[in-house]
Design a protein that fits this description.
This protein is of the alpha+beta class and 152 residues long. The chain is built from 2 helices and 8 strands. The protein has a domain of 75 residues.
Amino acid sequence: MKTGTSSRVSTYLNFQGNLEEAFTFCKSVFQTEFAGDGMQRFGDIPANADHPPIADHVKNRVLHVELPLLGNHILMATDAPQEMGFTVTPGNNMHISLEPESREDAKRLFDALSQEGTISMPLEDMFWGAYFGSFTDQYGINWMVNCQAPTE
């Protein structure tokens, strides 16, 4: 939902189906509005022959939401359905999300930080238009790299 390609760091949270309740609460506390198109749902994902269909009871869960907090910090989140292979436990429910200005910076950061760590999603082009990957570094910190810069 970010406009432009300027760098940004945010916090990304995983929920077990109660994201909408939690973020509605946070919205009232911080007195801000959801960014972009508001809460995007799993049912909004374009159909893809390479992926299984989304179960009806998962379609209304939140795929992505962004909420401005303080000092330009953005809190982002998803409901992480078990039906799609996610297991949310303390420790994997939070990521530092890096949004570098260029694909070159994205690759550099991803390669350096993931060294000796565990890559959960390799850095690649995604359906939402970003160059994205995620991993846990060698110290147990969860990271996401999400670059909106066009291909060079």
